[in-house]
DUF4159 domain-containing protein
Amino acid sequence: MKLAKTGFILLTLLFSTNAFAQQATLKMAKLKYNGGGDWYANKTALPNLAKFCNETLNTNFSEQDASVEVGSPELFNYAYLYMTGHGNVVFSPSEAENLRNYLMAGGFLHIDDNYGLDAYIRLEMKKVFPELEFIELPFDHPIYKQKYTFENGIPKIHEHDNKPPQGFGLIYEGKLVCFYSYETDLGNGWEDQRVHDNPEEVRQKALKMGANIISYAFTQN
């Protein structure tokens, strides 16, 4: 694990240079968790996000679909973790510790509520960072003002309960280590158009917000 972690830290340091985006292949993965929730939802989302970032941010993400278990040492081989689903989530103590170490080492987790995840993920992330609380990010937060500007914060992509979309964060030692998109379902917008039949304008908003998340995750101080 130490070798994997060291390699990951080097990747995150190098990512901030323009040359790195052209020299190395970064990887993103869906987080596989226990508890019975459908961690595998939004099957076409990450390949489409990777492709969009490569085209608009000059990154070099692999466009292959990938997943990684939360307790695996392979976690440290991924530059960005995406977590979604509709139901129950359970982290064992060792899984919570592994995820905490990943995030403390420079990793980034994006939790995207696909509807029904909220009650579970708030409890489980307390196992990861007992000392932290999710805070709502203001509309003027830099994550909304990267390559693309979202004056009203995170965009609404998919309607569930007629609630406004919200973006929350866990901030560890001054750094945003986990971004939580709630009541928006960005992953639905990243999927192939045929999956949810979203208008192209809506899909573009989702992909642009995703690109902002990626950009911010690897350029924040």
Observations:
- Residues 2-219 form a domain with the Rossmann fold fold (CATH 3.40.50.12140).
- The first strand starts at residue 28 and ends at 32.
- The helical segments are 2-15, 20-23, 45-56, 93-104, 118-128, 186-190, 193-196, 200-219.
